[in-house]
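Escalation from tier 1.

The customer reports that the assembly of two entities below gives different structure tokens on two consecutive runs. Tier 1 could not reproduce it. I'm attaching the input and our single run for tier 2 to review.
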Amino acid sequence: MIKSLKTQHHKLSDPAYQLHVLNDHSESLRNQPKFREKLEEINLYPLKPTGIEIFQMNVGYMCNMTCKHCHVDAGPDRTEVMSKETFKQCLEALQHSKADTVDLTGGAPEMNPHFRWFVEKVSALGKHIIVRSNLTILTTAPKYQALPKFFAEHGVEVTCSLPFYNKSRTDRQRGEGTYDRSVEALKKLNAIGYGTEGTGLELNLVYNPAGAFLPGGQESLEKDFKRQLKRKHGITFNNLFTITNLPISRYLNFLLESGNLEEYMDRLITSFNPAAAQGVMCRNTISVGWDGTLYDCDFNQMLEMPVEEQAPRHISEWNELKLNNREVKINQHCFGCTAGAGSSCGGATT
Amino acid sequence: MRETYYKPEDLKKFEDVGEFGPELAEKFFDYYGAVFEEGALSAREKALIALAVSHTVQCPYCIDAYTTDSLEKGASEEQMMEAVHVASAIRGGSSLVHGVQMMNKTKDLSM
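Tier 1 run:
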């Protein structure tokens, strides 16, 4: 089993060290423009929310996989999972929230013991639910194999990781055998109507570059993915979301070990797109950690940068008005969301 | 690209060639940008053509730039290597086809 950075007691499992690397690792990084300066240039600093539409919950860092690019440093050896009490506090907040989408992520969110219970409760509230699935979990134990049907019964949107439409590049990033198991899971989802127009069962794929490069055009990659997956496996899906790898956690480790960090940061910074900055997801999203702590996004969560002190910092203190007036916390990793066509959990933002 | 006579960091200075002649540089970069836009050929197909040509002209800057560009545009390793083989085949073939000229001349000169 591949160990998480945390279990290895790796220096990069310390968020403070990650921020130090991004800002001070070399002269080149020290001399780069700061994200704050770029926002100031376009009169977007301080960065303020536009209103919470997406209530994203990281229900735990436990995962059946240990992907090389994982910004969560998730894996089978991570034990942090959201408790039922915190789930209940989330439900309480959701009852009063204007957010119409609940986005469940992890780790493998399906591995949280309260996952099914929570999906049923949120479904009853009439909220749109997204589950971010790694696909392979749906091919493991019988209780997970039964999930596609459960998702369909509750109209859950399934958004899955698939870095490429071939085995070699997918397995290099996510582990040997991942591609074949992902294909198996996608076929199961297709078989019950997911990914077919008119069924209302939405199946989306997430593309992350498998290396130190940026994602290309979302539309053209989606066409390639659709053509290739249909031709090779008869698989259909609705949308492809291209997501830029943010330079934190395991992906930061890869950048450092491969000697690509400076060039990658330079590429992100020179590709800064003011239109993408306007549409960053932290403006319409709140991220809830497994312990109920509130963050501006899942990346800030992994860097242990909770929302600003003046705002409620725990789900038990939920106050949407105060949260909508907060100032979003930023650092150099934010350049990942503003490069090129922009990047968010829903793909390109421009 | 490794440290050689060509400096990797010079690739980023490409647009600075306008320093000694801005008007022509501007025309060139406008044209360059338009060439690589999605058209009758997809952006990925154009990146692969550029990758093949980069190997033909043996430009280290271009090879770095269009390897990255091909990956970003979603090309697979197999597609990229096939593009390089196309360049290699045309380059090798262009030498070999001149063998006909050699044969013609040989036959002209021979009894």
